[in-house]
Every structure is written in C-alpha cells, then in structure tokens.
Amino acid sequence: MQNGNPILKTLRAAFEREPRINLHRWPVQIDLTEDGVVVLEGDVESVAAKKLALELAGATPSVRGVVDRLHVAPPEPRGDGAILDALTTLLLDVRELKNCTLRVIRKGETLILQEAGGEDASGDILVSVKDGVGTLDGWVISLSHKRMAGVLAWWTPGCRDVVNALEVRPPEQDNDDEVSDALSLVLEMDPLIPDPGQIRVHTRNYVVTLDGLVATQAEKERAEQNAWCLFAVDNVINQLAVGG
Predict the structure, then answer these.
(1) Residue 105 CB: number of other CB atoms within 10 A?
(2) Which residues have CB under 8 Å from 75's CB, separation 6+?
(3) Residue 202 near residue 239, CB atoms below 8 Å
(4) Starting at the edge strand that comes first in sequence, how are the strands of the sheet with 207-214 ordered?
(5) Buried b / exposed e across 114-134, counting CB within 10 Å, b at 16+?
(6) φ and ψ of 66, to 5 deg
(7) Which tens digits make up the pLDDT trace of 92-104?
(8) What would the DSSP string read from start to end of 99-145?
(9) Is the pTM of this model over 0.85?
(10) 198-216 pLDDT, tens per residue?
C-alpha cells in the first residue's frame, strides 16, 4: 500500500534523479508513518548522500518530519573500540582542542584522557562509540570548535555516523561566515590537502561553494567531503580546478 503513496512516489523519484544517492547500488528503505513522517533507513555511500537524502525528504510536499536512520558505509568496517581509539587520537592531536577536557566512555566506564580547567578551558568533550556511530557530548567555546570536532569524527576510519551534540558556551549566532571560517580551518589541518591556501570557500544560506586550484582529483574530492562533513551544511558546489 505504501509503495503507491504519492508522497513516497515523489520522494523516490527525487532520489532517483540525484546521482549521489544512487538507489540502485544503495537501496535506501523509505517508509511513511500515518502522521506524515518519512523514515529513511539503510546504508549510503557518503555523507553527501546522507545529507541530500534528508534534505530531499524534508522538502517533499506534505512531509511533516523525517526520521534519520541512515548510515554511511565505511570502506573498512571496524569495531567500536578501534573507532574510539582512532577518534580520540585525532582529537588529542589538534592544537585548537588542547585546552579541552577529553573524556571517553569505554565499556560503560568514563575515563579522562586530557584534563583542562580554569578560565582558559575551551571545552569538555565526552566521546562514545556504539555500533559504529560516534557521539560527541559536552561543550566547546565556539561553533568552529564544534564543527572541527565533528569533522574529526567523520574522518575516523570505520565511523558510520556522527551525532554532534556539543553545546556552544556562550551561545553563538550561526551564519554563513562561521561555516566558511570552520571549513578553512579544517582544510588547513587536513594532511591530505597539502596546499589549502589555493582553495577559496564561499557560503550562502549554508550552501558551500569551493573554487580555486588543487593538484589532484583526490584533493578536489577530499575538499568537498570536508565541506559535507561540517555541521549544518546543506549542499556543496565543487568548482575546484585540477592542475599543476
């Protein structure tokens, strides 16, 4: 009965038109509750596919809400313990997070890996991993810190999804410039992008446009991936040129 529902037909057609979702290779399950809420479940190829599916579902007429049960299929699945170890290593290595307390939940026990206190403290981050999903709880001092931590979680090998529940204290008003600034920081700290100064970032209504020059196609794709990983980014337009 649901397969003939006009809302589901419209949404499935929208998914079919979006090549990055690729329903033939990644057959997302699409359901509709009686009160008009769409439920998306299954594995997708990338963060871009996940975000685009959620965006298209939310924009479909008569849809009253979207339940996200989508996960990104990692190239190499890993256990939760290995994911947690890799993620905490990334967080501990970032200069901007050196003044954050870092705690982890391992086998039900909370452990402190790095402690920062006093007026100079820039956050208190609690990390946990369950079924390949990394969750960041606690607080940080800026939206850039929140976005940076979220990208690091997405970078972690084996990670299937990221729940970025970090609170910003004191609260900051989010805007396009905040997104651009955070992405510039991420590009600078990404070892896979050796010359981030050649990349220009523009954001309008949470849609990121990348232009400039990179040396390889892999760098072009990596820069776009970083943009998609940022909290609140709705779409990415990649106009980077590949050249020597």
Answers:
(1) 16
(2) 157
(3) no
(4) 199-204, 207-214, 235-242
(5) eeeeeeeebbbbbbbbeebbb
(6) -135, 130
(7) 999 999 999 999 9
(8) TEEEEEEETTEEEEEE---STT--EEEEEEEETTEEEEEEEESSHHH
(9) yes
(10) 999 999 999 999 999 999 9
